[in-house]
Amino acid sequence: MSRLTIGWVALPLFAGFAVYLIPRLARPLALAAALASAVYATLLFLREVPLSLGLLDRFGVTLLLDPLSGFFIFTNALVTAAVILYCWDTGKSAFFYTQLTILHGSVNAAFACADFMSLYVALEVISIAAFLLVAYPRSDCSIWVGLRYLFVSNTAMLFYLMGAVLVYQANHSFAYVGLSRAPLEAIALIFLGLLVKGGVFVAGLWLPLTHSESESPVSALLSGVVVKAGIYPLMRCALLLPEIDPMVRVFGVGTALLGVAYAVFEKDTKRLLAFSTISQLGFVLAAPEVGGFYALTHGMVKSSLFLLAGNLPSRSFKELQQVPIRRSLWIALAIASFSISGFPLLSGFGAKVLTMKSLLPWQVVGMNLAAVGTAIAFAKFIFLPHRQFPPDSQSQPLKPGFWAAMLVLLGGLVLANAVYYEAYTVENVVKPLLIIGIAWIAHKLIFRQANVKLPRTAEKFEHLIGGMSLMLILVFWMVFAWVAN
Amino acid sequence: MLEAFVIATILCGFFGIVFKKNLVMKIISMDVMSTGVIAYYVLIASREGLKTPILTEALDNAAGIAYADPVPQAVILTAIVIGFSIQALMLVGIMKLARDNPILEANEIERENTP
């Protein structure tokens, strides 16, 4: 198993370079790398004992693989495969697939490693590959959006590096477990880096613009898996060290509410999806011990929604309400929206029930509020007008690659129900229906007519960096007030 | 004392990123900040000794010598390379942007390129 693990970590990186050398094999090779990850994740689920690898001495690379990382790796495999299928006949160059495969490999590495240095390397490779994917169209706008992303994440990673060396100083090792013996500043600095990278709370306000202005397949990838590379280490630390757990949970609730507050007033489809990503990451963090399953369902649902939104005739809800959309598109959109609102029969329901069950008492009100908000936001998609297009109509038919991607993602949503089938009890089924009912009434009465435009000043580049310093102060305060006792 | 200087360098770099208007200046500030972080690693590596961690004499003579810790230095080498490549990438991006915005004011570019 350990040989297999090393081979699996290295495979996407080799495949990435091979793609560039043999452009003709670009798509099959990239797809093969993604499928290998899916197979490997399945092996992880079947294995009972967590696999722990230490390369070199105590200061060397350490890997830790268990079903939690299995969920994340599986998400990565599914989303990457769906994006490759979506791009299959769009004429993307080999360079695009190279970056895609390298991004897949580095995200895998981030999910596998258990020490701060390997994580740093993985996160920085993710930044570079994601920048190249965002800037792929080479327009001024895309270059600026990518640059902004690279700038914010690199600055955050510099803080993270300072924290990592403090952990090393205390333990003579970079392993996650050393965090408990490290000085408190180290926890605060590392948290800041990961919170920014994972798009959590105020530090995550770089995310809406980056995810909404990229091309649809790239935003599907960014929202589906890349942000989770920042979330996963936070969860891992919270599980290893009980004193950090309350902090992660607080950030979970805060993020869920902040994201949803922006999402319900949003008038633009892709920005709504980006804000909803922020709030869903909050759900993942709010209950770290079961977050893996939530991350899997969110990865599938959000990437399918981004791919769907890219095929809608317009990005503004106002225009979409005037012209009916194709019915087949609407059905896919409705399935995904129902899943994210937690409707039974789709795995978003099981994930939500599991998360809600693992909450601490003080989290319950906030998370239920966030669940209602999510349902309100996605009611906007469900209530879009739609009609059957005659087969000989003028509009462009949807590509087969698109439907293949939808089959992978939405099929996955249905099949993943099996993971937590115990969720289907009367009590559990009634509650989400109630939440969705309340949300739809609120949508009809209030939010449909509401014409509130939330200011975007906090998303300006300089404010993002400034916000990082405020976040640093907040994290420092939290660490000194809570973890110290 | 040295630590204070290192932290001051990091803060100077950080404030440079916030307050400088020009994009190239922002990148240089980021470089200053990363120089500070690298210096911090070197400082922590030399907490227990200053000697270069290369064994030249026989091993039994080496026991008493205070060597610098090689691990943080080895690790920061990776970070230097990554930081360098990211900066190179950003400068290429800025060259592209400079074609339409020769002044490279961050605010101007942001206003033109955000919908």
TrEMBL record, chain A:
Annotated localization: Cell membrane; Membrane
Major location category of this protein: membrane
Coiled coil regions in record: none
GO cellular component, one term: plasma membrane
Top-rank lineage group of the source organism: Bacteria
Keyword vocabulary terms for this entry: Cell membrane, Membrane, Transmembrane, Transmembrane helix
Domain NADH:quinone oxidoreductase/Mrp antiporter transmembrane: 115-374
Topology class, membrane: Multi-pass membrane protein
This protein's name: Cation:proton antiporter
Species per Swiss-Prot/TrEMBL record: Thermoleptolyngbya sichuanensis A183
TrEMBL record, chain B:
Regions annotated as coiled coil: none
A GO term from the CC aspect: plasma membrane
Superkingdom in the source lineage: Bacteria
The entry's keywords: Cell membrane, Membrane, Transmembrane, Transmembrane helix
Protein localization: Cell membrane
Topology versus the membrane: Multi-pass membrane protein
Transmembrane segments: 74-94
Keyword RNA-binding: no
Protein family membership: Belongs to the CPA3 antiporters (TC 2.A.63) subunit C family.
Protein name: Cation:proton antiporter subunit C
